[in-house]
């Protein structure tokens, strides 16, 4: 069962990665990766620690260059863009990084205003207030608007981080381990939020995770990085319908079979 089948436009690819390889010295991390993200889709990327999931995100956002292969994002060839063009493209991408932190000395409101004021200078005070309140409401934390990050729980800080990303109205969201370090109930909340973001803001997303409950809850489609390539692809049950010893432990550990 697709989570959001109605929203996915399978005729439009927002990210196309073709035959991408990336090594660091003798370490061959990605060895011919293909990945297609369709408009409106939530695509989950699974893989063991160190398999190159974060490297893939850095390649897609142009922070790293591939050794081989091509990467297109929203119709642009990332590896051919100037630094200025890359910055423009990155404004259309929302990053929820593994360790993305809020500014501790700023209130929630100030944290959210910061990217807006920096990137959309033409907005009036009233428009800024409206945008801040809209995204805070979307993540269910309007009441924290005047609080400091230190007064929030880990799950709340994660939500504010996602709101800060949404405020620039990205077309694509890249979530790197959105539920890492959170308790199960907070994980469920974050998974719900990822689905709500997809619904409300019509985003297309890549969600990197080790958390199979997250994968199952948010993934319209799942791909699994094994030995530098996406060897398995499909819906949740298809991915784990295998005796492959590189795949089974993920399932067995998460679901304690
Ligand atoms: N800039 C870099 N220079 C050298 N090696 C790097 C660099 N970036 C990543 N690596 C190496 O590439 C490999 C893949 O790293 P990556 O961060 O993508 O793993 P990951 O799949 O995201 O793991 P995790 O699940 O632990 O976050 C690792 O061995 C890492 O040390
Ligand atoms: Mg990583």
Automatic annotation (TrEMBL):
The keyword Lipid biosynthesis does not apply. This is ABC transporter ATP-binding protein. The keyword Endoplasmic reticulum does not apply. Keywords: ATP-binding, Nucleotide-binding, Transport. Residues 15-252 form the ABC transporter domain. GO terms for molecular function: ATP binding. It comes from Parapedobacter defluvii.
């Amino acid at each position: 069962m697709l989570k959001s089948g109605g929203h996915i436009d399978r005729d439009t690819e927002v990210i196309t990665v073709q035959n991408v390889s990336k090594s660091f010295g003798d370490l061959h991390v990605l060895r011919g990766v293909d990945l297609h993200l369709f408009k409106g889709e939530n695509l989950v990327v699974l893989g063991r620690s160190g398999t190159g999931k974060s490297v893939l995100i850095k390649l897609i956002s142009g922070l790293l260059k591939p050794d081989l292969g091509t990467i297109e994002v929203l119709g642009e060839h990332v590896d051919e863009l100037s630094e200025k063009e890359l910055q423009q493209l990155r404004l259309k991408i929302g990053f929820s990084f593994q360790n993305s932190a809020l500014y501790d000395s700023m209130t929630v409101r100030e944290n959210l205003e910061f990217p807006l004021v920096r990137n959309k200078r033409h907005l009036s005070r009233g428009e800024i207030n409206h945008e801040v309140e809209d995204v805070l409401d979307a993540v269910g934390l309007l009441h924290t608007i005047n609080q400091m990050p230190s007064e929030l729980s880990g799950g709340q800080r994660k939500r504010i981080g996602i709101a800060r990303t949404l405020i620039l109205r990205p077309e694509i969201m890249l979530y790197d381990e959105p539920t890492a370090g959170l308790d199960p109930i907070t994980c469920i909340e974050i998974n719900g939020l990822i689905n709500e973001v997809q619904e409300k803001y019509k985003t297309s997303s890549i969600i990197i995770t080790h958390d199979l409950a997250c994968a199952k809850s948010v993934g319209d489609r799942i791909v699994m990085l094994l030995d530098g390539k996406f060897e398995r692809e499909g819906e949740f049950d298809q991915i784990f319908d295998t005796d492959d010893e590189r795949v089974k432990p993920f399932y067995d550990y998460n679901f304690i079979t």
